[in-house]
What does this fold into?
Amino acid sequence: LPDGQAGDPNVGSSSFDRELLEFVLGARSTDPEKHRAFARLQPDYCPLRKRYRLDGFSQETHKVGWNRLLLAVEEAKIELSRKPQAVVVVEGEPLCRDEAGRAVKVDVLVTRAAYEGLIEPYARRMVQVARSLLERNRLQGRDVDQVVLLGGAMRTPYLQRALAEGFGVKVELTVDPRTALALGAAIHSEIVAPVERVRRTIPSSAGSVASNVSVELRFEKASNRPCCSVSGIVTGYFEPESDLRIVIERDDKLWRSSELLVEDGGFFTGEVLLAEKGKPHLSQFTTQILDKAGRTLVAVKGPEIWHPSPEVEAPLANTLSILDPQDRLQVLVKQGEPLPVMRRLTIKTAKTLKRGEKEDILAMQILEGVPTLLGPEDLEHADRNVHVGSLTISGGDTKLVADLPSGSEVEITVHIDETRCIRVTADIPLLGCELKATMKAEAYGIKPEDLEARLAREELRLAEIRARHASHPTAIAADVLSMVDQLGSVGLMRTEIERAKAGEKAVLSGALKRLLELSGTLRMACKAQDKDKDLGEELRSAEERLEAIRALHARSPLPVVAGLLESIDSLNALEAAREEVERAMASPAGWRRAVAGKLLEELTEVIEKARSAQAEARG
It folds into this structure.
């Protein structure tokens, strides 16, 4: 796919564990509504906080106990994939002592139905992310042959059903989700190993010239050429006049090398012919050592070479951008681009960098994009990206030969490897020197109260979108409102903010990304509503002006206007524009609006020519 990657870091096994842990703990005494919501999932619901005073129990206050409970929850989650219910039990010592001093023993029953209710929003989100990915590539569920599941959490029957129903296709269950990633990593590591060495010892045999002889093969593990070099060395004692030969035969018996001479010192080299299958295929060979009479002394397995080389790229999960000194967002590497990658960009300093002063620095934020519910990231607004680090240039760099004036150009070169490790250099044409730019990874500090205030603003925007949609319905607004409601985005964020306030600081990062996802989605919905309104007004304006031109032309015909009107009619330009505007308003796809806008622009250009000709004729 041209844009074949999408995901949500807030959805996965750890999310399911967290929800189940919250269910086992129960709601705090200050949140009766949450307790009622949990109780609706399981009639005989009896969480720990109903039995013990545990309002102060959190990951920060009871790290050991929290981790023990999390482990027990994970075991119960696995059991629920096989059984209709499971009991969360913490063996051995009590979990902790509650606020009344009582020892807390954990044995909480959880039904599969309750667990499925807890993870239902995440299942909807999984389906929605995948659908958005298909829509971005102009595909539908029927274009998918099958869905392969990865990760232990995908053993959950409910998730398998949700994905199967969401796409209307078969879910592949022959691959074990628990081991699929590890197996793929192992296969990939085998493929990309640059050189393989295979060492075998040939056992002594009666009448053989070989005695404790060893063979070492060297070969590339993958090749894009059908012929590939293989070399090796035979070591150990053998008679000087033994005249050993090497023969390499492909295991399918369709190719065999000529006899390769073992030179003085035991070295040999040759080429093997790889099987052509039209897709990555592992050609396996057997290497034989022959004596001067042509007898096989020993045969060893190897080499094994892939052809063509399976190219496994390491794409960037989310776009990385830099906020330059003028507060402009410049994209470094776009989402989905293969790594490693190198980028150059030019910035201008917003202040003077003084030579020799270590504390005097130029700092620029590195930001990571957050996909929206509609798919694309919001790369127009810095505050809808996550701060992941800073790029700094220090005046204390010994290569800085003079003060760098404000407004000077700095050419930044950024190298990002497969592990997302970033190296940066800064070239300063004005001073003719290259400085070391430091990339420091850091998380953006945010407080629960800040998130709460931002969420309140997004709720106002959401209400505005609902009101506009009620009076002027559009497909994209309907799509966004449906997704936000089905996923329970606002409710999930409120829950995470409350948990952060109660001491679970670890949830802040996920809550921030979820908020940015919602913010970007709502902004796109607002823009689409504005665009739909503009398209409708432009269409009405074109219709009115065209009608006026026809009326005037009927009274005062002009050859040039006749030709322009004929071109509009022969191409059905007005009808085509009208139909495309209607399609755009009925579809959430952004490209539909672009097509409609282009047709209206072309129609308007012809109308303006006709109108200008009539105005000129009137003097």
